[in-house]
């Protein structure tokens, strides 16, 4: 099932959007910084050596105890996730070690008793192998020591997808995320979030295009239809293009109307525009849905703290109510808006993305460690500068029956506690966040600022909901996109500040690990676990922002020529259509969109 055209109503939106100011045509020049690029490579090599000596071929390193863990089913997550970064850094020995290992993985058998996450397995393993194949059979083929091992990357990608495909054996085709490899039967009575449904399509479509077998694309695109066209929009789409966070596997209806550019929903919005970058002929509907969501986000979610009206954050929503709370995970949004502005030739999206990126940088520069927190909140401008400092416990009654779903993925290995917050707050990347007591109190009265954080809030425009940091990439990711859109050296400087702070504080033992409090000396305490996305994302974006220009870079040559697109784990895929094709489709959309928009306006009114 390949999408080829948009609905008339959405074409109206696209036609209107293209009346906005185009992206500046000034020539952008990029500054190669070999000193900083090599410093990032050194950090990668240090972390890789610690993993390879103490944990390979297991999933992750425990850098303090020099042991290992297998939270991703024992298939060597850190190795597979590291491959595309090692290729871009041209670390030939690392590349060779990983490509020799991948053909030995047996994806039919999980080495742990844990369920298999369809989402995490797709973005880390499938994404890592497909990106490795595209890079090593393309611009970095000189690093391929063994052609057989390169071919095995595609073969193993197919093997993995074939194993995972039973997840879609449901009445609706909506996949179960938590897979039991013993029964090979998906749950039919649960729900799936947009970040699962909406973050499979790029990887599985790429696999179809490389193998010539359309089944992988068909499975994921059929499931995504429930997000593109909600069955019950009165519940599931409280704002145009902005949807709820749980979809019934059995009947496809939305179970709520709450969400945000946060864990559980985030990468659904991310992939809408990236699918159009991948192939504009097939994915015009995705582009149009991104425009609707982006415009609604600017109109309804952009929020300015009372103490710092110069800052622009993106709030969450519960129905049509706005919750002034955001996550480090959500700070990728700045980069996503910037990418959308570049490929759509719309300056307004770039400008908004720049504002979000600058706001996320404020969460870094304001702390003792120079690193931003996992979750933060603020009093929105509607509070008119008035703060309610009553204890949170006095505000909880109306939310005692609030629904909560226990997260399972991408959460800290133990809940973070801090003198700044009343309760632990857990977050994941593919399921709704569990609202703790403090978050529910914030929702009850968004003007409430914890008294212990009043001074900090007055100065910086946010307060801590979870002050931990799990070596996440999203802020540096947005710095990268901002740099590629503008060529402004300050974004390189911001990225350098961030990677230095991470190297100073999160570097523990023979690797890197989560810290418990970004506003405590030395980061407070620490865990003993190095996530694979350190290799895949943090160090890749940190390297790319300083390295030489190349076709794999966003906005190559500063000419909006996207030859590659990055998945949510920062694995680059070769796009299916070239720049000339995308330009023709874009120009055709401007002409055809106006005609279709008028027609859609009439029909929509009947």
TrEMBL record:
Query: Which cysteines are disulphide-bonded?
Result: 331-360
Q: Provide the top EC class.
A: hydrolase
* Molecular-function GO term, any one: calcium ion binding
Task: Write down the Gene3D superfamilies for this protein, in alphabetical order.
Answer: 1.50.10.10
Q: What Pfam families would the database entry show? A: Glyco_hydro_47
Where is there biased composition of kind Polar residues? Answer: 410-436
Q: In which pathway does it act?
A: Protein modification; protein glycosylation
Arranged from A to Z, the UniProt key words for this protein are: Calcium, Disulfide bond, Glycoprotein, Glycosidase, Hydrolase, Metal-binding, Signal
InterPro entries named in the record: 6hp_glycosidase-like_sf, Glyco_hydro_47, Glycosyl_Hydrolase_47, Seven-hairpin_glycosidases
The organism's superkingdom is given as Eukaryota
Q: Where is this region: Disordered?
A: 389-441, 584-606
Q: Where is the signal peptide?
A: 1-20
Q: What is this protein called?
A: alpha-1,2-Mannosidase
- Organism of this sequence: Tothia fuscella
């Amino acid at each position: 099932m390949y999408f080829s055209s948009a609905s008339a109503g959405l074409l109206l939106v696209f036609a209107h959007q293209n009346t906005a100011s185009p992206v500046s045509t000034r020539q952008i020049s990029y500054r190669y910084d070999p000193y900083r690029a090599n410093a990032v490579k050194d950090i990668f090599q240090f972390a890789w050596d610690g993993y390879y000596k103490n944990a390979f071929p297991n999933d992750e390193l425990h850098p303090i105890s020099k042991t290992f863990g297998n939270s991703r089913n024992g298939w060597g997550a850190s190795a597979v996730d590291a491959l595309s970064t090692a290729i871009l850094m041209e670390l030939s020995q690392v590349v060779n070690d990983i490509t020799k290992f991948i053909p030995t993985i047996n994806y039919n058998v999980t080495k742990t008793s844990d369920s298999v996450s369809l989402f995490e397995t797709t973005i880390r393993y499938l994404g890592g192998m497909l990106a490795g194949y595209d890079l090593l059979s393309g611009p970095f083929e000189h690093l391929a020591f063994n052609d057989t091992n390169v071919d095995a990357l595609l073969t193993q990608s197919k093997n993995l997808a074939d194993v995972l495909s039973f997840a879609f054996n449901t009445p609706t085709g909506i996949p179960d995320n938590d897979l039991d490899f013993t029964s090979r039967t998906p749950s039919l009575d649960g729900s799936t979030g947009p970040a699962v449904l909406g973050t499979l399509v790029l990887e599985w479509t790429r696999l179809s295009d490389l193998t010539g077998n359309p089944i992988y694309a068909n499975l994921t695109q059929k499931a995504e239809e429930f997000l593109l066209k909600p069955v019950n929009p009165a519940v599931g789409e409280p704002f145009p293009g902005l949807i709820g966070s749980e979809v019934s596997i059995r009947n496809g209806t939305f179970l709520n109307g709450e969400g945000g550019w946060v864990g559980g929903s985030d990468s659904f919005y991310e992939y809408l525009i990236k699918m159009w970058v991948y192939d504009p002929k097939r994915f015009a509907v995705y582009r149009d849905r991104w425009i609707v969501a982006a415009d609604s986000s600017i109109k309804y979610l952009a929020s300015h703290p009372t103490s710092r009206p110069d800052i622009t954050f993106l709030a969450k929503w519960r129905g049509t109510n706005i919750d002034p709370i955001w996550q480090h995970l959500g700070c990728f949004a700045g980069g996503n808006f910037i990418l959308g502005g570049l490929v759509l030739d719309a300056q307004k999206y770039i400008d908004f993305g720049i504002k979000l990126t600058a706001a996320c940088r404020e969460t870094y520069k304001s702390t003792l460690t120079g690193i931003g927190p996992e979750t933060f909140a603020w009093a929105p401008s509607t509070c008119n500068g008035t703060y309610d400092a009553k204890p949170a416990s006095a505000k909880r009654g109306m939310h005692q029956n609030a629904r909560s779903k226990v997260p399972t993925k991408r959460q800290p290995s133990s809940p973070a506690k801090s003198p700044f917050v009343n309760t632990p707050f857990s977050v994941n990347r593919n399921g709704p966040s569990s609202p703790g007591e403090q978050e529910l109190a914030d929702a009850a009265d968004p003007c409430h600022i914890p008294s212990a954080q009043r001074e900090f809030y007055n100065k910086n425009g946010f307060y801590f909901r979870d002050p931990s940091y799990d070596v996440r990439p999203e802020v540096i990711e947005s710095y990268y996109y901002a740099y590629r859109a503008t060529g402004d050296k300050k974004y390189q400087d911001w990225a350098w500040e961030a990677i230095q702070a991470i190297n100073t504080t999160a570097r523990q033992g023979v690797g890197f690990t989560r810290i418990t409090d970004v506003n405590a000396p030395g980061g407070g305490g620490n865990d003993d676990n190095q996530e694979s996305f350190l290799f895949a994302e943090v160090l890749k974006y940190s390297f790319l922002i300083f390295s030489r220009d190349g076709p794999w870079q966003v906005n190559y040559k500063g000419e909006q020529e996207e030859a590659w697109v990055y998945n949510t784990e920062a694995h680059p895929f070769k796009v299916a259509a070239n720049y000339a094709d995308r330009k023709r489709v874009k120009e055709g959309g401007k002409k055809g969109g106006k005609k279709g928009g008028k027609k859609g306006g009439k029909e929509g009114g009947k």
